[in-house]
Design brief:
This protein has about 270 residues and is of the alpha/beta class. The protein is about 40% helix and about 20% strand. It is globular, with a radius of gyration of 17 Å. The mean pLDDT is about 90. The structure holds NADP nicotinamide-adenine-dinucleotide phosphate.
Length: about 270
């Protein structure tokens, strides 16, 4: 255990069986939060095992952890995650919408398969909507909550052949900025967290074997930013997208929507 900034807080992290979600869940638990971690875990049993053994690992560090095998694009699965969180911990303080797919299929939109479009939107956008909708009643009742949506630089700059992914992340950011205004009165903060460029996860390495991961964002850097966001409230920081720069670079941009605010803030 490191610090205990999140002692007494309870978090749901989607897509936490590997990659960025796993790093965020470990960091939240390291700060003392109890965590509910989920993923579909359907790839030949291995992923399911990794989700449950990861929960075991967190518990062995002295933190509380529950694993729920679930698909965020399915309403009943999402309701199960939230029910499990409430039965175990009695509240939900933090929701990290991290589960996401980056389809292997790259092609100009004219040839883009409808199934790949639907698959991308189902997890990356519908999943975020469903998870938020399911936790909001509890957060509204608590009059406190913090939602972090993992986005991507692709929300503002998506590459050729990868428009679907960029559209899904742009949707997540629009949802973030709009909802921040709706839930501010309940003291619920909602922000997007965007790695700038590729992040060094197994999935990214498989998809881009020709690139050098040394230059990529590290999952631990995204997790560190997530911890900072998890400590915010609606009165300190909400309705923004925070960029996490690649390793070794220091400049970050924060953008968002708010009355009287400049759309972009640059921090060196
Ligand atoms: N890596 C990058 O370069 C990069 C850059 C910018 C943004 N991001 C974003 O960061 C997030 C995580 O990326 P990553 O590289 O860590 O991905 P990853 O290693 O492929 O992990 C994705 C996680 O989400 C889970 N998942 C996928 N679909 C799901 C669904 N429908 N329901 C529940 N869980 C689901 C996966 O487990 P199962 O497959 O077992 O469900 C896994 O735990 C994504 O939102 C991604 O778009 C990544």
């Amino acid at each position: 255990m490191k610090n205990r900034h999140l002692e007494g807080k309870y978090a749901i992290i989607t897509g936490a069986s590997r990659g960025i979600g796993q790093a965020i869940a470990a960091a939240l638990a390291g700060e003392g939060a109890g965590v509910v971690i989920c993923s579909r875990g359907k790839s030949e049993g291995n992923e399911a095992r990794s989700l449950f053994s990861f929960a075991e690992e967190i518990r062995s560090m002295g933190a509380q952890a529950v694993a729920v095998r679930s698909d965020v694009s399915r309403e009943e699965d999402v309701n199960t995650i939230v029910r499990q969180a409430l039965e175990t911990f009695g509240r939900v303080d933090i929701l990290v919408n991290n589960a996401g797919v980056f389809p292997n299929y790259h092609s100009p939109l004219v040839d883009y398969p409808i199934e790949s479009w639907d698959e991308t939107m189902a997890t990356n956008l519908r999943g975020v909507f469903l998870c938020i909708k399911a936790v909001l009643p509890q957060m509204i009742e608590q009059k406190a909550g913090c939602i972090i949506n993992i986005s991507s630089i692709a929300a503002v700059r998506s590459g050729k052949g990868r428009i679907a992914y960029g559209v899904s992340k742009a949707g997540v950011e629009r949802l973030t900025f709009g909802l921040a205004e709706e839930v501010k009165e309940y003291n619920i903060a909602i922000n997007a967290l965007c790695p700038v460029g590729l992040t060094d996860t197994e999935s990214a390495r498989k998809l881009f074997p020709e690139q050098n991961p040394d230059r990529w964002v590290k999952p631990e850097d995204v997790a560190e930013a997530a911890i900072w966001l998890a400590c915010q409230s609606a009165s300190t920081f909400t309705g923004k997208a925070v960029m996490v720069p690649a390793h070794g670079r220091r400049t970050i941009f924060i953008y968002g929507r708010g009355a009287g605010e400049r759309p972009w803030v640059q921090i060196d």
